[in-house]
Amino acid sequence: MQLRVQEATVDVAPGVSCAEALKQGLSGKKFKSAIACRVAGNGDGGVMLDLSAPVPDTAEELEPVMADSPEGLNIIRHSAAHIMATAVRRLFPGVKVTIGPAIENGFYYDFDYERPFTPEDLERIEEEMRKVVSENQPFSREVVSKDEAVKRFQAMGESYKIEIMDDLGGDVFSIYTNGDFVDLCRGPHLPSTGALHAFKLTHVAGAYWRGDEKRQMLQRVYGTAFADDKALKAHLKRLEEAAKRDHRKLGVQLDLFSFHEEAGPGMPLWHPKGMLIRTILEDFERKEHLRRGYNIVQGPIILRRELWERSGHYDNYRENMYFTEIDEQAYGIKPMNCLSHMLIYKTRVRSYRDLPIRMFELGMVHRHEKSGVLHGLLRVRSFTQDDAHIICRPDQLQDEITGVIRFVQDIMGLFGFEYELELSTRPEKSIGSDEDWERATEALENSLRNVGLPYDINEGDGAFYGPKIDIKLKDALERRWQCATIQCDFTLPERFDLYYVGEDGERHRPVMVHRVVLGAIERFIGVLIEHYAGALPTWLSPVQARILTVTEAQNEFAAKARDFLRAKGFRVEADLRNEKLGYKVREAQLEKIQFILVVGDKEVEAGGVNIRLRTGDNLGLQSLDETAARILADCEEPFKRGGMRYSFNYSGQV
RNA sequence: GCCAGCGUAGCUCAGUUGGUAGAGCAGCUGAUUCGUAAUCAGCAGGCCAGGAGUUCGAGUCUCCUCGCUGGCUCCA
User: Fold this and answer.
1) A343-400 pLDDT, tens per residue?
2) Which own/partner pairs from A579-583 qualify as long-range (CB within 8 Å, at least 24 positions apart)?
3) Is the pTM of this model over 0.90?
4) Sign (positive/negative) of CA torsion A541, A545, A550, A554?
5) Residue A139 CA to nucleotide B6 C1', Å?
6) pLDDT over 90 for what percent of chain A?
7) Rounded to whole angstroms, how far apart are CA atoms A256 and A522?
8) Which nucleotides of chain B are near protein (any atom < 7 Å from a CB)?
9) Dihedral over Cα of A177, A182, A188, A193: its sign
10) How many other C-beta atoms are found inside a 10 Å radius of the C-beta of residue A545?
11) CB of A583 lies under 7 Å from some atom of strand B
12) Whose CA is closest to A245, among A471, A528, A617?
């Protein structure tokens, strides 16, 4: 039999182990870091082979899997999980293992043990793992009948593995052995434990068995592993850097917002600079909604409880709502803005000619989120949605959804965000006819296709009243946060008896689309801060420029220059303190101010300023007019960049 | 809500085996008038998250509550 490893051709005997085949292939020196191999060209695009398994006779070509490829990293990390389980079983007799997959940037394994693991345990486990690695135990694969597998796991007391097999179904299972540890596993793995070169355990956490909060809480141990030490160190360094971009840290440093135990958890308070960012963003949004044919409306923060009963929110989300009572009347503090919008719709009879009606509200809502989920600005209890409800005819649904997706596309492009789209379909608990669901899901999917954006399908993850599209952004640590969402709703128009008069003179039921673009302003600003590491684009910066004097002799001119720029609408401060220039520069730099304008005797004489950017670049002496032109150009730059569907003309001036 | 960890001055942190609270930065006062990331000196600043307990004595040990952090679950 002949095996080809990329350019290298190796002759191996039939039935030789894959590890041996790879070793021979590698002697061609083409794939120094290959850790596994794959059979290519066998019809279904190739299968991963375990290195310890014999090469099947059908094999023609072997493709190397490089250690630093996504596939290779998965193999390394999943093998690391097995090695961790091996170590844990040695250290903690009586522990039961459950599942241990590779995940983004690492791996974990869930254990059932009599007590939680401590950070000290983590160190011991890591140490024991190093021993397992140094023992260089080969991973070997066997395919056995279910009866045989059950017998073996029963003997080891591994009841979870049996439950997994029952859930998976099937008659035969592959099991992997290294040393005395046997695990139910699909594979593949490294050839042996000694091939794991760089790993680190990071933290322990509780996790429910099968992700079900009613079931056993297990101990999850997280770790990370890479092809080599250099890559591992680089990853840990990245995490350190990411921590510096944490919006909670920057929020304090830049004096944007705060939380108070006295005010209540999840209730942000906006300081002047943070509120200025919000104001600019909100102004921008109002303009963008108006130009897209939305109407701006506003409803009250509290509405009578009966209304929430009618909408179904009282039944479904009572636990997460705040209530109050006034004059013996029960009120609910709104967790959503749609009810007011529907009441506005109902104030008159609407014709088919009036639709679609798009109502936009920067609506402050309150949701009593579970205490454990709160996270800085990214998950709060009091927040403002850039919410809109589109009430339209069924035949308009598709175009309306497409319009919203394009809107989202524009905004995300403006900020240079990468985002993920998910289409969520009908959940088990839901209301509405099959026909409605199909039509709406199809409208959402068609729109996604029309716009040509890639998306994932999240089966059964829709809201109970309709399917939806979610747009997710990443924070500094690459955790995903839902921002924009587009949801179809057949229920509320029904419950509130919304109708329009059609061409035929009859009453018809409209469809309602709930949608947010930024999502919650709070969350969006949190993600923005992390995205830009606090250095916001000039149009959004609370302070666009600061004028620094070298000595007090220039204070008069500096104040004039400040007033000149302010009169043009820019947000400018003057630092007239009796401090050294270097000190003032440092402060401005730490505050991430884009334009640092230095004024000394030379500049006063020339009637200009010396421009230093936050990048450290020095643009030299510039006139005040030239300075104003530069600030403006900087404001408009993101709007002019490619990829935008509309040309904005917005400098963020307040 | 669940599991674990943490909570000392506005911020970042130190605080020996339990013996009565400390630094840097920020703030205030004064001096200094200075050219692109920290001028010097002085002053002030704390119910050690809150409560209960153990102890002659608790920032240090135990329990409860609150809050924060990392996960899990949830997210209309």
Assistant:
1) 999 999 999 999 999 999 999 999 999 999 999 999 999 999 999 999 999 999 999 9
2) A581/A548, A581/A550
3) yes
4) negative
5) 40
6) 74
7) 11
8) 1-5, 11-12, 31-39, 66-76
9) negative
10) 28
11) yes
12) A528
Give the single-character DSSP code of A459: T
Q: Give the pair of three-digit tokens for residue A428.
A: 């088990």
Q: Strand B and chain A: which residues 330-369 have CB closer than 7 Å?
A: 335-336, 367-369
Distance CA A15, CA A276 (A): 70
Closest CA to A135 of A176, A189, A188, A195: A195
Quote the tokens at residue A128.
């024991």
Instruction: Give the CA-to-C1' distance from A599 to B41 in angstroms.
Output: 29
Residues of A belonging to the active site = 338, 367, 385, 387, 389, 468, 514
Rounded Cα gap, residues A583 and A603, in angstroms: 19
Tell me the average pLDDT of chain A: 90
pLDDT tens column, A282-297: 999 999 999 999 999 9
β-partners of residue A112 are A96
Long-range contacts of A498-505 (CB under 8 A, 24+ apart): A498/A342, A498/A345, A498/A346, A498/A391, A499/A350, A500/A349, A500/A350, A500/A351, A500/A352, A500/A354, A500/A355, A500/A393, A501/A349, A501/A350, A501/A351, A501/A352, A502/A352, A503/A352
ipTM: 0.95
A143 touches strand B (CB under 7 A): no
Measured CA to C1', the nucleotide nearest A246 is B69
